[in-house]
């Protein structure tokens, strides 16, 4: 990845914010960002498999998130030396999902299957989709409780302590008001400590969703926030400037070992040092 602009921003963020400073990477545009993130993700999953034998990733939707998956599928066809991921040993989870029928184009799962999962042969038992509205759950609260149970079962089967399995990389997009997953500013989900929550009355349609909560997001080894576009620059600056997660939920998205903000130049444009 092109680290120089990000390194300059990180140095200045240390003076600008009192909180811990995450990694910041800046690419010239959204397409180059998606390509760079795809290469980094493949390398990270391969490294996890080298250590653990398996790898796990939490997917996000959105334009950049889906573009990343398409590029990952392309890299899987011609892997670089030392970056050959065994997709039969990758567990796939989701950060949030729209509570709509399974064949609805709004489903993050549908987009991920088309962009990546159906192309690389991840076994069905390793694809842990959040329930659709026509999957036998009358309410999103029931779906959220089931998904929390699925996470807990995976943790127990792996011998992990606590209710969550090892999550090597958790990908997140961010909205222009700073929402991540389906945690919106000043919403009940922003102050809910459960690992999976039902979300109703979202300001962005569709209004009913299931989302990981901050406790699950924060359990991931690494959290990567993928953000492109000038319309999100103010929220990026607020989050990295130490905003309250109730006001800007992205500010509360932090990994156990690393937090990486992966930005295009437009999204980074309000950060100190971004101009040169």
TrEMBL record:
UniProt EC number: 3.1.1.31
This protein's pathway: Carbohydrate degradation; pentose phosphate pathway; D-ribulose 5-phosphate from D-glucose 6-phosphate (oxidative stage): step 2/3
InterPro entries named among the record's database cross-references: 6-phosphogluconolactonase_DevB, 6PGL, Glc/Gal-6P_isomerase, NagB/RpiA_transferase-like
GO molecular function terms listed in the Swiss-Prot or TrEMBL record: 6-phosphogluconolactonase activity
Glucosamine/galactosamine-6-phosphate isomerase domain: residues covered: 28-259
Keyword match Hydrolase: yes
Keywords: Hydrolase
Catalytic activity entry: 6-phospho-D-glucono-1,5-lactone + H2O = 6-phospho-D-gluconate + H(+)
Xref: SUPFAM superfamilies: NagB/RpiA/CoA transferase-like (SSF100950)
Domain of life: Bacteria
Pfam families: Glucosamine_iso (PF01182)
Top-rank EC class of the record's enzyme: hydrolase
BP-aspect Gene Ontology terms: carbohydrate metabolic process; pentose-phosphate shunt
Protein purpose: Hydrolysis of 6-phosphogluconolactone to 6-phosphogluconate.
PANTHER family, sorted: 6-PHOSPHOGLUCONOLACTONASE (PTHR11054:SF0)
Entry's family note: Belongs to the glucosamine/galactosamine-6-phosphate isomerase family. 6-phosphogluconolactonase subfamily.
Protein name per UniProt: 6-phosphogluconolactonase
Gene: pgl
């Amino acid at each position: 990845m092109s680290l120089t602009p990000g390194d300059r921003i990180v140095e200045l963020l240390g003076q600008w914010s009192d909180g811990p400073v995450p990694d910041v990477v800046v690419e010239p545009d959204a397409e180059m960002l998606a390509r760079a993130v795809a290469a980094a993700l493949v390398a990270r999953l391969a490294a996890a498999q080298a250590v653990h034998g398996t790898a796990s990733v939490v997917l996000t939707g959105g334009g950049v998130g889906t573009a990343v998956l398409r590029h990952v599928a392309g890299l899987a066809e011609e892997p670089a030396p030392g970056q050959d991921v065994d997709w039969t040993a990758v567990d796939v989870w989701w950060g949030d999902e729209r509570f709509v029928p399974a064949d609805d184009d709004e489903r993050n799962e549908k987009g991920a299957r088309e962009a990546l999962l159906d192309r690389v042969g991840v076994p069905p038992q390793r694809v842990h989709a959040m329930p659709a509205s026509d999957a036998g759950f009358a309410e999103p609260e029931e779906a959220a409780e089931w998904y929390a149970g699925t996470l807990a079962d995976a943790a127990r089967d792996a011998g992990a302590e606590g209710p969550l399995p090892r999550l090597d990389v958790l990908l997140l997009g961010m909205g222009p008001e700073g929402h991540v997953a389906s945690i919106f500013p000043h919403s009940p989900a922003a102050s809910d400590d459960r690992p999976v929550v039902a979300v109703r009355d979202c300001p962005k349609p569709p209004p009913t969703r299931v989302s990981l909560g901050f406790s699950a997001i924060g359990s991931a080894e690494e959290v990567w926030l993928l953000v492109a576009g000038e319309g999100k620059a103010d929220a990026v600056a607020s989050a990295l400037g130490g905003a309250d997660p109730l006001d800007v939920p992205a500010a509360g998205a932090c990994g156990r070992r690393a937090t990486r903000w992966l930005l295009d130049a437009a999204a980074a444009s309000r950060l100190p040092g971004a101009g040169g």
